[in-house]
Specification:
586 residues; Rossmann fold
Length: 586
């Protein structure tokens, strides 16, 4: 559920801070006041398109922030892998290493004047795609916006499975199907053409022998580089060390150590005359001992220096061997040596997989046959449940659509079996069915895919119908969104149809938060909360203001929506009457 929303410098909105409660909330205002801006800000926050044109004139960036209550966290969750599909917001957060605080999560998104945007879930930076994926568990925006889940055929199966209460069963089937596909791939590899397999085996055996014979050691390449550098620059190294020895402890008495020895004696003598010089004398002593030790180590190092041309040749030969191995078995000659050893491990694994053991193949074939039968039977069972639920679902949608001003509309949930001969062809990860919603909004017109509906108002009413009949099953479904927003749901309607839509929205809001942009008082009076959007001009600048209205101010707004006159006693009395009748407000 959306708990609060903060908008800063977005389009015409300079600043808005709103708190939202549960139930049914209506957003109203004069035509052109900017009602769509609030939805635009939410759409931007949820991963919609970002552009510098969204930044308020004179500002450097736009930002939208919202807090969502996720509901009570589950006592236990599935252990997910990267390939698993999360079923709810908590699973998504767990998969991405993000923690909710008090079962709540903060979403924030900004767009800066240089065109760069940023998004965060909690304190974790995320991509726009991540934000859109996560927010799909939180909120649906229905109307002429991007969040139109009904426009995605892949979503139709989820609606039907939720209605049939088989979401968990389908998830279990997906795991079973994945196991079958995995085993089929292994068998296909074993059944590869004998000649091709033999060539692969020969090549891999050669690679294994070549790498194994090299007897590589961890980090050997870098160690050889260091040794080769030392041996190949021996003359310069020897010359540098000899010069250092001469400067440190040369025999002519002018060396650093000799000078320090004289300084030490003079310092000791001076300290005997003035005790304040004692610390300086001690520091000279330390310097003398330290440099003397350094001089001894350089002398020892110099005595150990021996040029070994044979070792240099051995090192260079070993470097050439490693270079050739990297060229063959690593991503590049500059790659770490670990890539070669990794190639060896993979080659050994591949050789094991290419094992032509007839026993292994027979065992795998038997497993696949048994698993395939199990997958097919389960897919058929799920399909039967879907077909049974599809008829009831279609009937329920038609009934609600009729009450919402779409009499004569036909609606069908098409459940068609996939084509193919093999089980893995006839089945997909979610079963044996291709599922799509079809509709004919006008009498005499054939059923067509729902995605081809042009009217945003019709699409919103179809969604309202679906959500109405799914309300009970959705309330406990794992993929339920906590907030739904309906935009332009009242396009081309009025009278009793508007009253019916208001009633349906009120009923839908019993199980989740519902927000609706409307210009009809017949819908607005059903709301638990009402937010007014106003446009104002100050100092030559136009801005949009958003605020909750209560009491007499709400009565005045309903009166304006009824007749365009918020002050006449007749309009105000009518508004009070409607609020008392439909909204339960006296």
């Amino acid at each position: 559920m959306l708990e609060d929303l903060s908008i800063k410098d977005f389009a015409l909105i300079d600043s808005a801070n709103l708190e939202f409660g549960p139930g049914f909330t209506v957003l109203s205002g004069e035509t052109g006041a900017g009602k769509s801006l609030l939805i635009g800000a939410l759409t931007f926050l949820l991963g919609g398109k970002a552009g510098v044109e969204q930044i308020r004139a004179g500002a450097h960036e736009s930002s939208v922030t919202a807090t969502f209550y996720l509901g009570k966290s589950p006592d236990s969750m599935r252990e997910l892998n990267d390939d698993d599909e999360p079923l709810n917001a908590f699973e998504w957060l767990s998969l991405h290493g993000i923690e909710a605080e008090d079962d709540r999560v903060l979403l924030r998104r900004v767009i800066r004047e240089n065109g760069k945007s940023g998004a965060w879930i909690g304190s974790t930076p995320v991509t726009r795609a991540d934000l859109a994926e996560f927010s799909s568990f939180l909120i649906d925006i229905h109307g002429q916006h991007e969040h139109q889940s009904l426009m995605k055929v892949s979503e139709h199966r989820k609606f039907l499975d939720s209605y049939a209460a088989i979401t968990e069963r389908v998830s279990a089937f997906t795991a079973l199907y994945s196991e079958l596909v995995s085993k089929r791939k292994v068998l296909d590899a074993l059944n590869t053409d004998d000649r091709d397999r033999a060539q692969k085996i020969d090549f891999l055996n050669f690679a294994v022998k070549e790498i194994t014979d090299a007897k590589l050691k961890a980090n050997e390449d870098t160690e050889l580089d260091d040794e080769e550098n030392k041996l190949s620059s021996f003359e310069k190294l020897y010359s540098d060390v000899e010069q250092i020895n001469g400067l440190l402890s040369g025999g002519d008495g002018s060396s650093v150590v000799s000078a320090l020895k004289k300084l030490r004696a003079l310092s000791d003598s001076a300290a005997g005359s003035d005790k304040s010089l004692q610390k300086l004398s001690e520091r000279l002593d330390s310097a003398f001992y330290e440099l003397s030790d350094i001089a001894d180590e350089y002398k020892s190092y110099s005595q150990s220096l021996v040029f070994d041309p044979q070792r240099l040749a051995e090192v260079q030969e070993r470097q050439t061997l490693i270079y050739n191995l990297k060229k063959k078995y690593a991503s590049s000659v500059a790659a770490p040596l670990s890539e070669v050893t990794a190639y060896l491990e993979n080659a050994l694994k591949s050789l094991d997989e290419l094992d032509t053991s007839s026993d292994r193949k027979e065992k795998l074939e038997k497993e696949i046959a048994e698993l395939g039968k199990k997958v097919y039977l389960e897919a058929k069972a799920i399909s039967a449940l879907r077909k049974e639920a599809a008829e009831k679902m279609a009937s329920g949608v038609v009934q609600v659509l009729s009450a919402l001003g779409m009499k004569g509309t036909r609606f069908s949930v098409n459940v068609a079996e996939k084509n193919g001969n093999e089980i893995t062809q006839k089945c997909g990860p979610y079963g044996i069915d291709d599922i799509e919603f079809l509709i004919s909004a006008n009498p005499g017109q054939p059923l067509q895919p729902l995605a081809k509906i042009a009217s945003g108002g019709e699409l919103s009413r179809v969604m309202l119908s679906l959500k109405t009949i799914l309300c009970q099953s959705d309330a406990t479904g794992e993929s339920t969104v906590g907030t739904m927003i309906f935009d332009e749901i009242d396009t081309g309607i009025g009278g009793e149809v508007a009253v019916s839509i208001g009633s349906h929205l009120k009923g839908l809001a019993k199980n989740r938060q519902v927000l609706c942009i409307t210009h009809l008082a017949s819908i607005a009076v059903y709301a638990d909360n009402q937010i007014k959007i106003e446009k104002a001009v100050s100092d030559g600048k136009t801005s949009t203001h958003v605020r909750e209205i209560l009491g007499q101010e709400r009565v005045s707004e309903i009166a304006r929506m009824l007749s365009g006159d918020a002050a006449s006693s007749q309009s105000l009395e009518h508004a009070r009457s409607m609020l008392a009748k439909f909204g339960g407000i006296n």
